[in-house]
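In response to the reviewer comment on reproducibility (Comment 2.3), we provide here a single inverse folding case reported in full, input and output, so that an independent group could reproduce the run without further information from us. The structure tokens appear first.
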């Protein structure tokens, strides 16, 4: 018998939440001991290699596998003529090798399985696919005749919202902006590719998968292969980044499971960097028109935000780009719309701050344009249009400290006394400028389950099927568990990344800490109560275990508008000789509820801002309209920011206490850092040069001719 929370168990001397600490698994990662999806040692594993379509729209007439099968080491070739039947589970992308139809360039048309990766790749070169293509429609245009307004956009928002009369508001306005912004397709480029090890054992399917959501992956696999969910186990102990691309299952997982069944042994399938550009999703390009009208005093009368994006022929995916314009600023007249067109392209997918990221580039650039047009300070203009309640839903904000973020950021950045005139600061060949933009991201919580166990030898085991995609999720969950148990963090062992633990939500939508943490808190509190109530505070030899489910807690909450907010400030220099833009300084101030771990939180904000800077200046996936192929299909052609591009990024946050979120008071921080960064950069570029760049990424072509 062990006494719980009295003499034998160490009591916590201070809360674990709020204390910065490095990732629990950091040492394993930097020493190469952390097993990623295809690192797991599996005896007798075979290797799979995909063969992709070379047309964007068409049909596969025949696949000749004879030469591949004759190759030494090749164990089998899957194609639609011999692939196992899959049962639809709602995502048509997953119905791989089920029909001869080709819906986008790079779609998988065959898979070769062999005893080595080299033999599989060699075999893939020998597969002869006879495919016939017809003219493909691959280019998003604002005047595309097939554009339509969907019923809903992503995350379940209505496609359209209208309050008052935007045209009347604009007509009444003293100062107006009407501008159209373009954002490009972007790819996530996580360090670890989409990769899977799969094997079948006594009719059960076991998968080591690089996924942000192993419970959802388990359910999808169970559906596809017509198995009971308990016959499928998905393990994602370590995931090398995802950014949304691993939020929903991709074909690599299905193909590895199919291939393992075909050859009767474990199969490893790691997509190559090049293959990811067609097979792992991307952020849709957008075209967004913003109309703003304000009084002579700088009060917004009208906000119009019309967003256009693309989806595939396979399924409807609608980026919710205009949704943030429903709550950022007050105005009596408001209109947001979304339209989408289905093209012969891969289906877009979630990418860090889907909706808010491209949406904020448009809205926050337009606010800056309005400030210039009205001769108002852009910080002041935002503060003056702060809404007291959600301006469309008329419900209160659970907490909202955008104004404080703007004020604090302006102070830290040294904004006061800024000369608003563009193109007047020069340092040799460089023009200098500063810009500001606001950020936001929803604070969502989804149901999860967690298990807490006390053992007689003073150990606490906490299990929750979180996905730690490099964020520090397991580290912060251990802190949350320690506080709920009232013991020091080192007394708690935390296990994540295994669907066998029990259902839990995706590492996506910045929901993880709130959702998993709530389940962990509930399980740990129940465990404490049970030990005290049933065992007099002493842990019996057999230990005590409690499982908690937050479904009811999460659903039964009062209605609030729950969002994190932030402000980003940027300083740039633009060369008058080359047109090159260098970001010299980025500052982000965020109000995102309680910060559980300052070390890992700072890393998330910093990573988001860095990704935003990368999107502002570098990232663009170029699709060849003749072939439907993303020609920027590797990291030599698709540029992401490197250390030399990111000289000085400062991150801070306000101490925000919000009682309307979850027991921990956390809002979620994985995505807000990217929101607003590109607008802050573009606004600074305008301040430096007088050139308003409305198309991302900001490149030499925008700046060279006029910057001399
Ligand atoms: Mo994030 S794009 O919700 O995984």
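Designed residues, in position order:
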């Amino acid at each position: 018998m062990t006494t719980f929370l009295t003499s034998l168990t160490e009591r916590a001397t201070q809360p674990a939440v709020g204390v910065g600490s490095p990732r629990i698994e950091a040492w394993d990662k930097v020493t190469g001991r952390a097993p990623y999806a295809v690192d797991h040692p599996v005896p007798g594993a075979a290797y799979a290699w995909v063969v992709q379509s070379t047309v964007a729209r068409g049909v596969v007439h025949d696949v000749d596998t004879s030469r591949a099968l004759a190759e030494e080491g090749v164990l089998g070739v899957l194609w639609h003529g011999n692939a196992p039947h899959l049962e639809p589970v709602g995502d048509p992308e997953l119905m791989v090798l089920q029909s001869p139809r080709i819906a986008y360039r790079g779609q998988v048309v065959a898979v070769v399985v062999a005893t080595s990766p080299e033999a599989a790749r060699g075999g893939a070169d020998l597969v002869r696919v006879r495919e016939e293509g017809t003219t493909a429609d691959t280019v998003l245009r604002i005047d595309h005749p097939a554009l339509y307004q969907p019923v809903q956009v992503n995350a379940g928002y209505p496609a359209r919202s209208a309050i008052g009369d935007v045209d009347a508001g604009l007509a009444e306005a003293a100062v107006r902006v009407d501008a159209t912004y373009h954002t490009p397709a972007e790819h996530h480029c996580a360090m670890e590719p989409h990769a899977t090890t799969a094997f079948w054992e006594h009719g059960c399917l076991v998968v080591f998968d690089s996924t942000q959501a192993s419970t959802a992956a388990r359910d999808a696999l169970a559906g596809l292969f017509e198995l009971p969910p308990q016959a499928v186990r998905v393990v994602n102990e370590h995931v090398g980044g995802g950014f949304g691309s691993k939020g929903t299952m991709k074909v690599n997982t299905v193909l590895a499971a199919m291939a393992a069944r075909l050859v009767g042994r474990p199969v490893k399938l790691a997509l190559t960097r090049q293959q990811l550009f067609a097979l792992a999703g991307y952020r849709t390009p957008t075209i967004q028109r913003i109309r703003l009208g304000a009084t002579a005093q700088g009060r917004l009368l009208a906000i119009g935000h019309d967003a256009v994006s693309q989806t595939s022929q396979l399924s409807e995916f609608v980026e919710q780009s205009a949704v943030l314009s429903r709550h950022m600023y007050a105005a009596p007249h408001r209109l947001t719309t979304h339209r989408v067109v289905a093209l012969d392209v891969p289906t877009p997918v979630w990418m860090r701050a889907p909706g808010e990221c491209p949406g904020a580039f448009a809205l926050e650039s337009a606010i800056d344009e309005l400030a210039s047009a009205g001769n108002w300070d852009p910080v002041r203009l935002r503060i003056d249009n702060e809404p007291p309640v959600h301006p469309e839903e008329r419900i209160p904000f659970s907490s909202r400290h955008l104004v404080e973020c703007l004020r604090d950021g302006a102070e830290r950045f040294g904004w006061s006394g800024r000369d608003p005139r563009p193109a007047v600061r020069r340092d040799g060949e460089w023009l200098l400028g500063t810009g500001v933009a606001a950020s936001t991201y929803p604070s969502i919580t989804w149901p999860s389950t967690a298990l807490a166990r006390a053992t007689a030898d003073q150990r606490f085991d906490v299990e929750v099927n979180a996905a730690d995609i490099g964020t520090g999720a397991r580290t912060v969950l251990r802190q949350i568990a320690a506080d709920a148990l009232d013991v020091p963090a080192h007394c708690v062992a935390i296990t994540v990344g295994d669907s066998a633990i029990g259902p839990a939500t995706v590492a996506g939508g910045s929901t993880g800490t709130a959702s998993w943490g709530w389940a962990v808190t509930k399980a740990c509190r129940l465990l404490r109560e049970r030990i005290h109530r049933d065992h007099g505070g002493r842990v019996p030899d057999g230990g005590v275990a409690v499982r908690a489910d937050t479904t009811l807690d999460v659903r039964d909450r009062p209605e609030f508008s729950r969002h994190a907010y932030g402000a980003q400030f940027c300083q740039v220099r633009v060369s008058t000789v080359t047109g090159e833009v260098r970001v010299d300084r980025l500052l982000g101030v965020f109000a995102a509820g309680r910060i559980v771990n300052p070390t890992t939180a700072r890393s998330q904000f910093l990573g988001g801002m860095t990704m935003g800077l990368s999107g502002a200046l570098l990232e663009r996936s170029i699709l060849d309209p003749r072939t439907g192929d993303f020609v920027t299909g590797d990291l030599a052609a698709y540029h992401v920011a490197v250390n030399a591009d990111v000289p000085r990024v400062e991150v801070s946050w306000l101490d925000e206490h919000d009682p309307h979120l979850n027991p921990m008071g956390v809002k979620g921080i994985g995505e807000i850092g990217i929101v607003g960064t590109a607008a802050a950069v573009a606004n600074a570029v305008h301040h430096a040069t007088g050139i308003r760049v409305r198309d991302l990424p900001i490149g030499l072509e925008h700046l060279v001719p006029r910057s001399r």
